[in-house]
Amino acid sequence: MSFAERKERFMDFMGLGGPASLSLTIFAELFCSILLILGLATRLATIPLLITALVIMSVHHWEFFGDHDLIVALLVGYVAVLLLGPGSFSLDKLIARK
Protein backbone atom coordinates (compact mmCIF):
# COMPACT_ATOMS: atom_id res chain seq x y z
CA MET A 1 0.00 0.00 0.00
CA SER A 2 1.09 3.58 -0.38
CA PHE A 3 3.65 4.56 2.25
CA ALA A 4 3.30 8.26 1.44
CA GLU A 5 -0.44 8.23 2.13
CA ARG A 6 -0.19 6.41 5.45
CA LYS A 7 2.99 7.78 7.01
CA GLU A 8 1.44 10.90 8.55
CA ARG A 9 -1.71 9.15 9.81
CA PHE A 10 0.16 6.21 11.35
CA MET A 11 0.32 5.87 15.13
CA ASP A 12 3.18 7.69 16.86
CA PHE A 13 4.86 4.88 18.83
CA MET A 14 6.98 6.08 21.77
CA GLY A 15 7.34 9.55 20.26
CA LEU A 16 9.18 8.30 17.16
CA GLY A 17 6.73 9.89 14.75
CA GLY A 18 4.38 8.34 12.24
CA PRO A 19 6.87 7.71 9.41
CA ALA A 20 9.45 6.06 11.70
CA SER A 21 6.80 3.93 13.40
CA LEU A 22 5.42 2.82 10.03
CA SER A 23 8.92 2.01 8.79
CA LEU A 24 9.64 -0.13 11.86
CA THR A 25 6.32 -1.93 11.44
CA ILE A 26 7.03 -2.65 7.77
CA PHE A 27 10.49 -3.93 8.70
CA ALA A 28 9.05 -6.25 11.34
CA GLU A 29 6.16 -7.55 9.28
CA LEU A 30 8.08 -8.00 6.03
CA PHE A 31 11.74 -8.74 6.71
CA CYS A 32 11.42 -10.39 10.12
CA SER A 33 8.57 -12.56 8.84
CA ILE A 34 10.73 -13.69 5.92
CA LEU A 35 13.54 -14.54 8.35
CA LEU A 36 11.08 -16.45 10.51
CA ILE A 37 9.76 -18.42 7.52
CA LEU A 38 13.30 -19.33 6.48
CA GLY A 39 14.30 -20.17 10.03
CA LEU A 40 17.24 -17.79 9.94
CA ALA A 41 18.04 -15.79 13.11
CA THR A 42 14.75 -17.11 14.39
CA ARG A 43 14.74 -15.87 17.96
CA LEU A 44 16.18 -12.49 17.00
CA ALA A 45 13.61 -12.05 14.21
CA THR A 46 10.78 -12.90 16.59
CA ILE A 47 11.46 -9.97 18.93
CA PRO A 48 10.31 -7.16 16.55
CA LEU A 49 7.28 -9.25 15.62
CA LEU A 50 6.39 -9.65 19.30
CA ILE A 51 6.74 -5.92 19.89
CA THR A 52 4.53 -5.18 16.88
CA ALA A 53 1.89 -7.65 18.09
CA LEU A 54 1.93 -6.13 21.59
CA VAL A 55 1.51 -2.62 20.16
CA ILE A 56 -1.43 -3.82 18.07
CA MET A 57 -2.99 -5.37 21.18
CA SER A 58 -2.53 -2.13 23.13
CA VAL A 59 -4.15 -0.09 20.35
CA HIS A 60 -7.16 -2.40 20.51
CA HIS A 61 -7.39 -2.05 24.32
CA TRP A 62 -6.11 -5.57 25.08
CA GLU A 63 -9.26 -7.16 23.64
CA PHE A 64 -8.27 -10.83 23.40
CA PHE A 65 -11.43 -12.10 21.76
CA GLY A 66 -13.75 -10.63 19.19
CA ASP A 67 -12.69 -8.87 16.02
CA HIS A 68 -8.97 -8.99 16.85
CA ASP A 69 -8.49 -12.63 17.80
CA LEU A 70 -5.99 -13.32 14.99
CA ILE A 71 -3.40 -11.08 16.63
CA VAL A 72 -3.75 -13.13 19.82
CA ALA A 73 -2.98 -16.30 17.85
CA LEU A 74 0.05 -14.64 16.28
CA LEU A 75 1.22 -13.42 19.67
CA VAL A 76 0.99 -16.92 21.14
CA GLY A 77 2.86 -18.31 18.13
CA TYR A 78 5.62 -15.72 18.40
CA VAL A 79 6.08 -16.43 22.10
CA ALA A 80 6.27 -20.17 21.36
CA VAL A 81 8.91 -19.64 18.66
CA LEU A 82 10.88 -17.35 20.96
CA LEU A 83 10.87 -19.91 23.78
CA LEU A 84 11.30 -23.09 21.69
CA GLY A 85 13.67 -21.74 19.06
CA PRO A 86 14.07 -22.86 15.47
CA GLY A 87 12.78 -26.24 14.35
CA SER A 88 14.73 -29.05 12.80
CA PHE A 89 14.03 -27.85 9.24
CA SER A 90 15.36 -24.32 9.76
CA LEU A 91 18.43 -22.67 8.29
CA ASP A 92 19.65 -22.07 11.84
CA LYS A 93 19.87 -25.83 12.43
CA LEU A 94 21.52 -26.37 9.05
CA ILE A 95 24.16 -23.76 9.85
CA ALA A 96 24.69 -25.14 13.36
CA ARG A 97 25.46 -28.63 11.99
CA LYS A 98 28.44 -27.39 9.99
UniProtKB/TrEMBL annotation:
Keyword GTP-binding in annotation: no
Q: How does it sit in the membrane?
A: Multi-pass membrane protein
| Sorted UniProt keywords | Cell membrane, Membrane, Transmembrane, Transmembrane helix
In which compartments does the protein localize?
Cell membrane
One Pfam family it belongs to: DoxX
State where it is primarily located.
membrane
Transmembrane feature ranges: 20-40, 47-64, 70-91
Q: Which InterPro entries match?
A: DoxX, DoxX-like_oxidoreductase
**Family assignment from sequence similarity:** Belongs to the DoxX family.
Q: What is this protein called?
A: DoxX family protein
Native organism taxonomy: Bacteria, Pseudomonadati, Bacteroidota, Sphingobacteriia, Sphingobacteriales
